[in-house]
Amino acid sequence: MVDSPLVNFKGRHLLGIDDLSADEIIGLVNTANRFVEVSEREIKKLPTLRGKTVVNLFFEPSTRTRTSFEIAGKRLSADVINISAQSSSVVKGETFKDTVLNLASMRPDALVIRHPSPGTPLYASKFAGCPVINGGDGAHAHPTQALLDMMTIMERRKSLKNLNVAIIGDVLHSRVARSNISAFKRFDANITVCGPKTLMPAHMDNFGVRVTHDIYEAVEGADVIMMLRIQTERMAQGLFPSLREYSSRFCLDSKVMKKAKPDAIVTHPGPINRGIEISSEVADGKYSVILDQVTHGVAMRMAVLYLLCGGAD
Ligand code: CP
User: Fold this and answer.
1) Which atom of ligand 1 is nearest to the CA of 270?
2) pLDDT by residue (tens digit) across 97-121?
């Protein structure tokens, strides 16, 4: 099906966007684009990864990432096993390392890990004995989200070069923001980040981005408006007075969208907090590509599993 991928990923880990060149990102997007039609078939199945085993090891809740990795693996005929921390021997006190060592002893061909602690997939990659894919580690990185975002943006804008990008919301806790900034910078984007001062990492200027606390200023001239979820589960103390006050200043609604370019696109990694960081009118409206992102998530994860597990052979 995919006869000449641009990149050789066989046996590699996918831990962060920082490990990928611009050519490799484009190669992954091109490969994923070729898998899109499989999900439109009546029989959604290719034999490509028959005999391979993919283990999804999730220590945090997930709807999109876990399901799309499972669907992606199954559409490529791999055997996919889902393990959540709550239903594993972690609750009996088994360590993360022992959990991974025991799973490695069953000889999987890829291990997808989501964990609240940054760096956990990197740690696992030292002894997993197979490619490790970061499915999101704390506030650090979410590489497959950034890749599916690049795929979605390329479909609409045709090129990733020199885009004006606004990233708005809870930047402090966002692995999606960090991975996307890393990806956009490979294509010389002009990036503006926007949110309350308390939800902005210190020294954000070191990332080579412009910072504003005015959502109207952020969206003006943006080709891509990337909204972020408020991650209350990661907030130890109140970082803003109330959700109502947050939404009064940072919710992307129709009034704010009047400042946007007519062909701007609005992304959100999900899950969305309707009426808090984005209004239903915008989330479900003509600028939104939010459900396209989810569709592309399956194709991108098919591409990642295909290339890392050696389907390109
Ligand atoms: N975008 C994303 O990671 O969503 P889930 O938490 O549902 O996987």
Assistant:
1) 1
2) 999 999 999 999 999 999 999 999 9
